Sequence to fold (157 residues):
Amino acid sequence: MVRKFVLVLVLLMGCVSAQAQEMEISFALPSFSTANYHNPYVAIWLESNEKKQTLLLWHLKKGRKDKWLVDIRRWWRKQGRYGEVPDGVTGATKGPDNYKTRFDISGVEQFNLFIEVVREDGGRSLLKQAINLKDKQSEYKLAADKEIGPVTINIGN
Fold:
């Protein structure tokens, strides 16, 4: 009886993991020669007909609230002011460097991915990529913008 239970459990786990869908995003935050450099705020989120979900939010939290979150304008209008951001997706601002992060996108087949980068006394970049998992396209490349370097999005299991 225990063997059958373990076998069924292993088979179920295999089915669940086979359906799991991951997205990896690689991007760079460029360096600027300015006396008043501030690390940028970064928001990455997806929007579909079914849901809007913040995947990553780097900001500077002082006290209970960060009054500068509204400066991430598109994210704030579409996501930030309406809901709580899960603790697992937030982090402190980061300086110029190359970054790579992974997200579980299981349960969503078609969505728009947004990346917004805003820097105090700097500029603002907003990148958008439509993604349809039914197309079987596994890589997307986005051109650099003022506040963000080139972006590579890889979709895989």
